[in-house]
Amino acid sequence: MNNTTLLVLSFCVGILVVIQGSINARLGTLLNNSLLATSAALVISACFTVTTAVVTIKQFPSATQLQTVPVYMWFTGGVLSFLAVSIFYYIIPRAGISTTVTFGLFGQILFAAIAGHYGWFGTTVEPLSIKKIIGILIMIVGITIIKYK
């Protein structure tokens, strides 16, 4: 895929996150328990993921490949997904979708800039530049303008 396609897909994922968060936060409100909404979302997500993987993967990893994966990698992503999703569903009905996503996006951009700069978690190194720092500062100003009258 070319870079433009990847950027458009990323934009669409942002839209999906807002829709998904809104619907599942509402589910949590209707059930009087955001953890039940999180459970439903993650179980359905796991079912779709496993089904898609089984149908589309042409060659599964060998036993040797599986053994080379550090143990923490099998669990950390799932635990972080659980925390992110369940906290998201808890906050949305209380703070609103716009506030939750705005502050969540700010956290993502700030942490992504730092993690990318150092290449944490095996990511491609993307050095911080003055341009990126100015962009992050502009975002802080934008959040302040959006949230505080």
In short:
The chain has helices spanning 3-31, 34-56, 63-68, 71-95, 97-118, 130-147. By secondary structure, it is mainly alpha-helical.
Distance between the termini: 42 Å
Shape: globular
Strand content: under 5%
Unreliable runs: none
N-to-C order of helices and strands: HHHHHH
Beta-strand segment tally: 0
Percent in helix:
over 70%
The residue-averaged pLDDT reads 92
Rounded to an integer, what's the Rg over CA atoms? 18 Å
Strand pairing plus helix content: what structural class? mainly alpha
Number of helices: 6
Largest sheet data: none
Can you walk through the features of this model?
This protein is mainly alpha-helical and 149 residues long. The protein has two domains: 1-92, no CATH class; 96-149, no CATH class. The protein contains six helices and no strands. It has helices spanning 3-31, 34-56, 63-68, 71-95, 97-118, 130-147. Helix 1 packs antiparallel against helix 2 (34-56), helix 2 (34-56) crosses helix 4 (71-95) and helix 4 (71-95) packs antiparallel against helix 5 (97-118). The longest helix has 29 residues, at 3-31. It is globular. The model has no long low-confidence stretch (mean pLDDT 92).
